[in-house]
Amino acid sequence: MSQTYYRPIPAEHGRWQLAGGWVRFSQFEILRRGEAARITDTASDEVMDALTTPRAPVLGLAMDRPRIMGIVNATPDSFSDGGSYDGVSHARALLAEGAEILDIGGESTRPGAQDVPVPQEIDRVVPVIAAMRGLAGISVDTRKAQVAQAAIKAGAGLVNDVSGFDFDPDMARVVADSGLPVCLMHAQGIPSTMQDNPSYGDVLLDVYDALAQRIARAEAAGIPRDRIVVDPGIGFGKTEAHNLAILRRISLFHGLGCAVLLGVSRKRFIGSVAGVERAVDRAAGSLAVTLAGVAQGIQIHRVHDVETTRQGLALWQAVTGGDK
After folding, report:
1. Quick one: 239 exposed, middle or buried, by C-beta within 10 A (0-12, 13-18, 19+)?
2. CB–CB of 250/260 below 8 Å?
3. CA 228 to CA 141: how far, in whole Å?
4. Annotated catalytic residue within 38, 302, 310, 324
5. pLDDT band of 295, cuts 50, 70, 90
6. DSSP for 54-97?
7. What is the pLDDT, as a whole number, of residue 59?
8. 70 — alpha (psi -120 to 50), left (phi > 0) or beta?
9. For a designed S-S bond to 296, which of 78, 109, 150, 251 qualifies (C-beta 3.0 to 4.6 A apart)?
10. What's residue 114's pLDDT?
11. pLDDT for the residue numbered 196
12. Mean per-residue pLDDT over the chain, rounded
């Protein structure tokens, strides 16, 4: 028999609290490869523990409500806004708009992007991290152990590795030794080639299994599960259809027992669906997808448009009572 996956179905008056947060559920969608989904009211104690245990705080922030991570691209070639501003000034502006975490990166991971040498990446991110130290939770967006080490020394409190420890074999050791949390993302391939022809058997379950393997590898390296955040990697080696399939059932990933990060801001599939060519004009579509993730209990939202997201969340919480 194929493996069984349990996706919690959000319900306004559900019996159980999903991941200790604002979403409740009473039923599960049972998913198996090659079979039609079906609904059940029961699951094992192991499944229930994974789905209902409150998640550990990340960067001092409780995971019982949605959190906004502002994107600071200290690069000249980001797909959305690279090279258009000074990193420190932009980081301060995002804080003023309501960002609770700053994700500072010095290497573009847009489709087709090329690797940046380690010294250059360090030179880009360390001054921004040092300037923001103590003002907000700081994440360093890097695949490279040496960059992570320099960033941690400068004040980063979270390592956001879009390769999920696949790129640099020393990254797991660096994170384990630091005692800091890590975000492990799923990507199929590397940025320069990941969109050439991405293919999956069942994208939702394939990505779930790949993240489970990344978590197991991190735990084997000495990183406990309560220090791991997972990211299904929307747009990283995935077609529009793949992205939408993941987003429709993204609550499945709570079954991994970790906080979940969602990064959809300004991405190409939003422009394709909405008919919006320029990335900077995709704030409304980005907010719509973000709120869909919030409704499925996703805890951390990585965004460019912090003020727009803050307003959207405030209204969502006021209308739904999702802040209680």
Report:
1. middle
2. yes
3. 15
4. 302
5. very high
6. PPPPBTTB-SSS-EEEEEEE-SS--TTTTTSS-HHHHHHHHHHH
7. 98
8. beta
9. 251
10. 72
11. 63
12. 93
Short-list 105, 93, 94, 90, CA closest to 68? 94
136 is written with which tokens?
A: 């907000």
Map tokens 């409500």 to a residue. Answer: 65
The predicted model gives 28-45 an average pLDDT of: 97
Is residue 15 part of the annotated active site? The answer reads: no
Structure tokens at 319: 């209308």
CA dihedral sign of residues 122, 83, 157, 55: negative
Kindly tell me if the per-residue pLDDT of 78 is higher than 80: no
Kindly tell me the burial class for residue 146, based on how many C-beta atoms sit within 10 Å of its own C-beta (0-12, 13-18, 19 or more).
middle
Where helices occur in 167-236 by DSSP H, the ranges are 171-178, 203-220
DSSP reduced 3-state for 164: coil
> Among 143, 227, 267, 282, which one carries the catalytic annotation?
267
Residue 302 designated active-site: yes
